[in-house]
Design a protein that fits this description.
single chain, mainly alpha, 2 domains, two-stranded antiparallel ribbon
Length: 323
């Protein structure tokens, strides 16, 4: 009997992205991770051409630009649909807690926490010179410090966003990697997502703008320019998500669409438009803060209602066309 080599691969069944062995879901599209049950037996005497073609399989599966996730989901037969939003968030938090196993990765967050503490003590003593105000702006130190319980909760969420961004910016430097990779592709994807040619395409765009304005208001309850750094950071992180076609918000958008559409796999371009809308919304929120206008909350509600109207109108047009 000829000897062979067994190869077991783990990949996303919806978009084909290669996954870590312990991954429970795809951070790119939100789908459940799929462990292949098939083992490829490569004969030691297999011709070079055959081996080469088999080694190229993962590369083909991971090609999302030429064959988007939604297209492959319809062409490759039964696929695992993206998981629901609640389960996605729970599993994402569980995976994020694995950082506790490596204390070195928590160092930027610990340093940032100490900076927040020092700035809070200086503020309570009435010490607030220009350098302190600048550092407070850059670190979002005053987020959630004023207002009630809702403001405090929003400030905590904003500080989590800032800490996550700091880790994402610093840790790649120790690995000799570019910390802001994907920004260039994100800018291209952003403007591409803003190009709408039908009523159906307007809904996710307006919904993304409205949702991000409400989220910005939640994290920056005063809607002040002093606390607008969280909006700048969210803007940059969304551009990275668009450029890499992955990340927390990318997966969250897929899982949310899956929950709200009763299990249907969301459109790839629809998710792109939604995240482009969110990117635009954070930019709009920062602009309003710079102008001293506290319009984000009601403007976000109006845009979400408008998005819902466009969804209803689009659905009615499809039903009329089908009839």
């Amino acid at each position: 009997m000829k000897e062979g080599v067994s190869i077991m691969g783990k990949f996303c069944a919806s978009c084909g992205t290669a996954l870590n062995e312990d991954a429970k879901f795809c951070a790119k599209c939100g789908s459940k991770a799929f462990q292949s049950n098939e083992s490829l037996q490569i004969n030691t005497e297999t011709p070079p051409e055959t081996v080469k073609s088999e080694q190229e399989i993962p590369k083909t599966m991971n090609n999302t630009k030429n064959n988007p996730p939604i297209a492959r989901a319809s062409n490759d037969g039964p696929q695992n649909n993206p998981i629901g939003m609640g389960k996605f968030i729970t599993e994402y938090i569980n995976q994020s807690l694995t950082v506790l196993k490596n204390p070195k990765q928590m160092l930027p967050t610990v340093v940032l926490g100490l900076v927040w503490l020092v700035l809070a003590l200086l503020g309570s003593l009435g010490i607030n010179p220009l350098p302190v105000r600048i550092l407070s702006f850059l670190t979002f130190a005053q987020g959630g410090m004023f207002g009630g319980v809702l403001s405090a909760a929003g400030g905590i969420l904003g500080k989590v966003v800032v800490a996550a961004f700091l880790n994402a910016a610093i840790m790649p430097l120790f690995q000799k990697k570019a910390p802001f990779s994907g920004i260039g592709g994100g800018i291209k994807g952003f403007f591409g997502g803003l190009a709408v040619k039908s009523i159906t395409a307007v809904a996710p765009l307006l919904g993304g703008v409205g949702a991000s304005l409400l989220l910005y208001t939640f994290m920056n309850s005063t809607q002040s320019l002093q606390n607008s750094m969280v909006g700048i950071i969210a803007f940059v992180m969304l551009l990275q998500n668009l450029g890499r076609q992955g990340g927390f918000l990318w997966g969250l958008a897929f899982s949310a669409a899956n929950s709200f559409s009763k299990g249907r796999t969301p459109s790839y371009i629809g998710v792109t438009r939604c995240i482009s809308g969110m990117t635009l919304g954070f930019a709009l929120g920062m602009t309003l803060s710079a102008m001293g206008l506290r319009w984000c909350a009601w403007l976000g509600i109006v845009l979400l209602i408008a998005a819902l109207i466009f969804v209803i109108v689009s659905k009615n047009k499809k039903e009329v066309a089908a009839a």
